[in-house]
Design brief:
Blueprint (H helix, E strand, L loop, with lengths): L10 H11 L12 E3 L3 E3 L6 H9 L8 E5 L2 E4 L1 H4 L2 H7 L3 E4 L11 H4 L4 E4 L11 H15 L6 E4 L6 H14 L3 H11 L3 H7 L8 H15 L9 E5 L2 E4 L1 H4 L2 H7 L3 E4 L11 H4 L4 E4 L14 H13 L5 E4 L6 H14 L3 H8 L9 H24 L1
Parallel strand pairs: 4-7, 5-6, 5-7, 9-12, 10-11, 10-12
Antiparallel strand pairs: 1-2, 3-4, 8-9
Helix pairs in contact: 6-7, 7-8, 10-17, 14-15, 15-16, 15-17
InterPro entries: Atypical_DUSP_subfamA, Dual-sp_phosphatase_cat-dom, Prot-tyrosine_phosphatase-like, Tyr_Pase_AS, Tyr_Pase_dom, TYR_PHOSPHATASE_DUAL_dom
GO molecular function: MAP kinase phosphatase activity; protein serine/threonine phosphatase activity; protein tyrosine/serine/threonine phosphatase activity
Catalytic activity: O-phospho-L-threonyl-[protein] + H2O = L-threonyl-[protein] + phosphate; O-phospho-L-seryl-[protein] + H2O = L-seryl-[protein] + phosphate
Length: 388
């Protein structure tokens, strides 16, 4: 039996949206906030991708070829799937291959013979593949198999951490009424696979426009939690200040603060008169002619701006002011990029850090660019891990 595919998306984003649209329980199921090992606060409402990410990353352990994640339900990789003798010793009667027809996947009805019932799902572990058409039929297949006396189900993809794992979660949610968070926790009790699942697939979530819009909206919700009044200048990180154009042009105030570096994200824009000659030889100036608009590609300045901030803070007694006109959007976006590039913070964590110190509000375009940066950084980290 083969299932068909439809519109593009990614598995965790698809899991959240599909179950939400189909009125399946997504709530955490406990009052107040939950704290996961690793200091992650989980809201009692529909969990965000970042909150799910935090849980997926919690816990460490070695990954096995196969784990029994639910009574008589086994989750594993392709290596185990090709070991027919090993499957026979486990008593496997059903195989659900979420890597059907892909390179190096030998699974088929002929491969397993008449003693094993085989079902194949030709899923791709890529950002533009939609897993939602498989949730219900796969969950039903697992459910019917486990209701057969003496049956044991083995579900796998290539590594057993992404495609197959998502279908196990779908089964627990559809047929056992688990919340998504509880389903993840249940599987993690018996398998270390989810410790690396996010690196294998969820990091790609920012690459899809629908998913990116969802996550940008979540970041806006985080920004909305800030209760601070907007001031001229705030120290948001040790020796790192965000401010507006008024404080940037007050050289006396900057001298009292000990500012040694200026990063102007509104260079040459109306109302901004800053340049190197304005500040003189005692202050190092860097200007970025950014527009606070929905189409400006600020991302081309992320790395050079972060490098400038980093070098300034490494200097003895170095203090840097990053500003635009209001000190809310362009300047804060560059500081967020710095925290992501040099301190390995996620966009959400970086925002939570800053809003403790200053009222900021990057526009949605800039938030999307930060999400894209996060995706690029995670992909780079994943490639490095694979090499090691």
């Amino acid at each position: 039996m083969l299932f068909a595919r439809t519109k593009p998306n990614t598995w965790l984003y698809t899991q959240v949206t599909w179950f939400s649209e189909n009125d399946t329980n997504l709530e955490v199921g406990l009052p107040g906030k939950l704290t996961v090992q690793g200091s992650c606060d989980i809201s009692p409402e529909t969990p965000s991708i970042q909150e799910l990410e935090c849980i997926l990353h919690s816990g460490k352990g070695d990954m096995n070829h196969v784990d029994e994640v639910w009574p008589n339900l086994f989750l594993g990789n392709m290596c185990m799937a090709h070991d027919r003798h090993g499957l026979w010793k486990l008593g496997i009667t059903h195989v659900l291959n979420v890597n059907h027809g892909k390179t190096h996947s030998q699974g088929s009805h002929d491969f397993y013979g008449k003693t094993v019932d085989y079902h194949g799902v030709p899923a791709d572990d890529v950002p533009n593949f939609d897993m939602s058409p498989y949730f219900r039929p796969s969950a039903d297949y697992i459910h019917e198999a486990l209701n057969t006396p003496g049956a044991k189900v083995f579900i796998h993809c290539a590594f057993g951490v992404s495609r197959s794992a998502s279908l196990v979660l779908a089964y627990l949610m559809i047929h056992h009424h688990f919340t998504l968070l509880d389903a993840i926790r249940k599987v993690k009790e018996n398998s270390h696979r989810f410790s690396i699942t996010l690196q294998a697939s969820v990091a790609t979530v920012a690459s899809g426009p629908q998913a990116q819009g969802y996550m940008a909206h979540h970041l806006e919700n985080v920004l909305d939690t800030c209760k601070l009044e907007l001031t001229q200048i705030d120290e948001v990180w040790p020796n790192l200040y965000i401010g507006n154009v008024a404080i940037a042009q007050n050289r006396t105030a900057l001298q009292k603060l000990g500012i040694t570096h200026i990063l102007n994200a509104a260079h040459s824009k109306q109302g901004s008169i800053g340049d190197q000659s304005f500040y003189g030889s005692k202050v190092l100036y860097c200007g970025i002619p950014a527009d606070d608009s929905t189409h400006f590609d600020l991302n081309i300045y992320f790395k050079p701006a972060a490098d400038f901030i980093h070098k300034a803070l490494k200097q003895a007694d170095g203090k840097i002011l990053v500003h635009c006109i209001m000190g809310m959007s362009r300047s804060s976006t560059l500081v967020l990029a710095y925290l992501m590039l040099y301190h390995q913070l996620s966009p959400c964590c970086a925002i939570k850090k800053l809003i403790q110190k200053r009222a900021i509000y990057p526009n949605r375009n800039f938030l999307a660019l930060l999400l894209d940066l996060d995706f690029q950084l995670r992909r780079k980290k994943r490639k490095t891990c694979l090499i090691l």
